[in-house]
Amino acid sequence: MYSWAHTERLGLCFLLLACTAKGHLDPPSFQPGVLHQYHYTVDFQIGHISQPSVRKSTLKAEAAVQTHLLWRNASHPGEQLVHVQIHDFKIHHLPEHDETRNVSVGLSPEDLLGIEDYKHIALPIIFHWNSGKVEGFYGTSEGSSQTLDLKRGLVSLFQLQLHSGIEVDVSGKCLVTYNVSHNSIVKTKDLHSCTGAAQGHTSVNKAFRVQWQPTSKSFYSMDGSLLQSVVTEEAHTISLTLKSSIGANITSRQKLDLVSVLPGPKEMLGQTMQEVLSTLPGKYHATDIIGQPLKTTCQHCPSLITYLKKSGKQQMRINLSKPLSTRRFHMFVQMLRHAKKRDILQLLQKSSGDMVPFLIDAAVAAQSTASLSSLSEFLDFSNKNQVPLQEKFLYAAAFAPHPSIELLNIVMNKLKGKVSEPTVMTTGIIVTGAVVGKLCQMNLCGEKEVEFAKATLVEGLRASEEEEEEIIYLLSLKNAQLPETIPLLLEYAEEDTGSVSVTALTALQSFPREYITDEVKKTLRRIFHQNRESYEKNARLAAAEILLLAEPSLFDFRNIILALESMDKETSKLLLSKINNILRSQHSARNVFQQVLKDTQLNNYNRLSRLGGSSVFSGLMAASDDMVSTYSLELLYTETGLLRRSLSDFSILSHGHPLRAAQVSIEASGLESLLGGAGAEEEGDEEQEVMAGMSAILFDVQLRPIVFFKGYMDLVSKIFGNSGEPTSIVESNILFIDHLQVRDSKLQYSKNFP
Asked: PROSITE patterns given for it (predicted)?
């Protein structure tokens, strides 16, 4: 009995000892008077996703790295200053080619980095090491940012805390997990969690973004507290959201191996770390270990100065319908991003009239301080001769993939000054909402310039006295999609019964479902059922559609079915067609509808058989692994058979991200009076004058509405004064996908999708 218990206790004791040994290592450190010689290699491979069989392009760098203990804390020996110096830096390149060849091209570091930068590589750096945690990084003022980033990456290999949590290294502030076993350590870094490092830029619209799937693991080998080797492997798959076959696979591998241990310099004496640093030659100063992206340049784009010299002899002609214009647009965007203001201004001033609109699109897309500043100086909103260029600039700002505060300021300042053409002011107000909305999606809603722009739009709506002016500000808020303006939109939707109400409700339709709360639904029910006022049919239809698509209740759907009998035949026919369209789709509301229609008092011929020509059609245009493209056509007729409204919509859904590619709405009212008063005016339309117009949304941006005619006299003048040319709302080169991602894994690389 005793021997069995004794054996169990011994076994448990050995088990505990084994577990302790497995999960515990001494914190890494260096011993004084010892020079450690490491061999450092880092290589990158990049290949196309669509061509996995093609050999990847490889870039490899290697160097000798010497480290020694400079100083340690007498009361805490684990706190140290470590001196690091790189020698014999070499670069090799293996370009993409046939697998039968294997020729490595040795690149001259002096030619690749420049003579000065190559000299800076050999300059030593110092890092503050505290029980494996890199707490400080020190360099001299002579080092360049390019070589400093390489050293940041090297020092990041010494970041070894042995416990999971948050670490700061060249990649930023990242979440890491450790797996410790005897003398080996595996560190896994969650690159998606990294913050603090500048990552470049991307498009605001998620459908135009890039998917990034990274992995990062480091394998450490220790001999007591001495770091023997470390291997870090990273893999990045970067692809377009809309088409995942367009992209790249990027892998990087770093390796640091201890080669020799030799007698080295003695440690320095000093009470504090700062005291030691102040005595060193070279004036070392603290710098951030987080990598900073380098300024990228277009390798194949000519400089703007070169173009200006050549353009004096021949003028470039741009035809937007040709694919060549897209390539030239890309070239100019890259060229203007690195040009000076005086050169851009000179280009705008000396170019032909056909070329200037193209350059305005490119300058806004470039989003550089120089390009925006030159546009601000070139454009004079008080000059009527520049009206087409002013609208070109405003629409380019609305379509900017990632607008800046600087761009918003230019738009606001231009609108505050003298504006010669009312249509330009109208476009500017609508565009301001689009720019504000994108800035808020970029988490810049709290900036004072954005707050001022939001307040300007709200105050402008409150101060509007004319219906047309109210509609313009409501369209601006529709572009902005600010949740705090929903109560304001509801107020205008309910208090007005005509076009203002319809515009406010269409603005509400653009919000995601989670913003259609119970309070919002109460207002929508009052509008649809006309509890307080009699509303135009388009307002009732918009209210019903929001209720049907925003997680409808059985109560809402039942009441909408019951209301069909009290509506005119065309409105009820269109609403019933919308319901049937939802039943044929995969929308979540479909289950609610099917449950309600089990009631035979509702689902019968008398209620669900409606006369009229109004209808809704929808279907699938295209589908792939990455996106689904759909179309819909909505037609609403008057009781006399004239077209009241047509709505064409083309939408894209990519990886859960919706995008309204295009929506065109053509509306007409009061046309019965042109037929000699045939047919009575319909409910809510009693006092509407003869009018026809068009409204369009392009890539989620509401454009300025176009009025074909308003009033009988205007119609007559348009008929006799019509030139026969089509009306163009917007004609532009637009940069939709603009993604620059910088990963600072010891040698910096970037992936640009312009």
From this structure: VITELLOGENIN
